[in-house]
Write a structure and sequence with these properties.
By secondary structure, the chain is an all-alpha fold. Helix content is 44%, strand content 0%. The relative contact order is 0.11.
Length: 104
């Protein structure tokens, strides 16, 4: 998340540096929370479909990855289209589960 400025606190004043650090903390926590919630939803869905997902395996999964974060450019979102995709609980649809073990 700190990619664009390559991990540097760029503000000269201490108060601005603190604001930059707090914003980074809030953003990082939001992405990790979002990812954790969707991991949980995915695991529940896979288990409901009969897949064996051992808790011991889940202990090694980290929500602190960046695959779902766009570091480059501008993100354009059609809000109405995205809202239309939400289910009754307010969740976005999950990607289909991989069924071919060779793809894992």
């Amino acid at each position: 998340m700190h990619y664009a400025q390559q991990g540097a606190i760029t503000k000269p004043a201490l108060a601005d540096q603190t604001d930059q650090a707090w914003c980074l903390t809030v953003l990082t926590n939001a992405v990790i929370t979002w990812t954790t919630e969707y991991y949980s939803l995915a695991v529940r869905q896979l288990r409901a479909a009969g897949r064996d997902i051992p808790d011991e395996l889940l202990a090694h999964i980290s929500p602190a990855h960046s695959e779902n974060v766009n570091f480059f450019g501008v993100i354009t979102v059609d809000v109405e289209a995205e809202l239309a995709k939400l289910d009754g609980g307010g969740w976005r649809p999950l990607r289909p589960a991989v069924t071919d073990a060779a793809l894992l």
